[in-house]
Amino acid sequence: MNGKIIKQISNDYTIRLENDEIVTCKARGKFRNMNVTPLVGDNVLIDYNNKYILEILPRKNELIRPSISNIDQAVIITSVHIPNFSSNLLDKLLVIIEYNNVLPIICFTKLDLIDNEYRKEIDKYIHYYRKLGYQVYLNTDEEIKKIFKNKVTVFAGQSGAGKSTLLNKLDPELKLKTGDVSLALGRGKHTTRHVELISLLGGLVADTPGFSSIDFQGMSNEDIRDNFIEFNNYKQNCEYSDCMHLKEQNCCIKDKVQEGEILLSRYENYLKFIDRK
Predict the structure, then answer these.
(1) Which CATH superfamily groups domain 2-58?
(2) Model-level pTM?
(3) CATH 2.40.50.140 spans which residues of the chain?
(4) What angle do CA 204, 105, 99 make, to 5 degrees?
(5) Considering only CA atoms, which of 253, 267, 109 is closest in space to residue 178?
(6) Which of the residues 52, 61, 148, 202 has the least number of beta carbons within 10 Å of its own beta carbon?
């Protein structure tokens, strides 16, 4: 029978079958010999009678930290007040999520807590990311409820950015604890030790520890460059085909930054990401 792993604790894998039945299975020893570990999100073939995972079906993507596969989209919870807006963290998550072939979606929270002057500044960012083609929502938008159906979604962002508040609004039945919380679904700071998929609005949302610590693991400087998506619109006009947009002469990207076509904060964050590699 086919199913999807929705939770893992030690060597116990909770699997939702195609008929929505929930079963707990062990992984066959052959996976250790193959150096393959079943992940939450994996689509699997199981031996129903003996409750063993027989085969892991091909993955479309996977993350190492948190360990999860077959993700459709990542909602980046972007607070503008306590914690304050960080373009650096937003751009870092966008680049890493793009690199891992996951659709990034941005959701700004706590906009009701800032004054009109600061809101104008935040609106400039909202407009820019939308211009790049990213889906950008405000936590007051009812439209965001439509994005979860038939999707596997993870959430990313700072602790305390308003994730649990947003999820409670989307589904009051979750009754998640709000306040000083981590990315775990309402279980308090740094308390979730496993990954779990939870039903939400016709889809599945990952209850994941550790997404805030995701880093550029496995990415080269060229990977970082190529996942600043607006750079790809202009790079063919650089003098060098392999231009890194740093100190090279006749770099179109640097020109577009000076002209205001590319947001200065995006380019500054790019330089920081390259420098820390």
Answers:
(1) Nucleic acid-binding proteins (2.40.50.140)
(2) 0.88
(3) 2-58
(4) 95
(5) 109
(6) 202
Question: Which one-letter amino acid corresponds to residue 180?
Answer: D
Residue 19 and residue 26 in contact, taking contact as beta carbons nearer than 8 Å: no
Query: What residues contact residue 185 under an 8 Å CB cut-off, 6+ apart?
Result: 164, 167, 174, 176, 192, 198, 205, 207
For CATH 1.10.40.50, list the domain ranges present in the chain.
Answer: 221-275
The pLDDT confidence band at residue 59, using thresholds 50, 70 and 90, is very high
- Parallel, antiparallel, or unpaired: how do β-strands 73-79 and 103-109 relate? parallel
Q: Minimal CA–CA distance to 195: which of 1, 2, 14, 3? A: 14
Euclidean distance between CA atoms 122 and 78, whole angstroms: 11
Comparing CA positions, the residue from 4, 1, 166, 162 lying closest to residue 69 is 4
Q: Which amino acid appears at position 118 of this protein?
A: Y
CATH architecture, domain defined by 221-275: Orthogonal Bundle (1.10)
Instruction: Report the pLDDT averaged over residues 16-42.
Output: 91
CATH for 63-213, options being 3.20.20.70, 3.40.1410.10, 3.30.1660.10, 3.40.50.300: 3.40.50.300
* Rounded-to-integer distance, Cα 124 and Cα 120, Å: 7
Give the dihedral of Cα atoms 63, 198, 91, 124; nearest 10 deg: 160
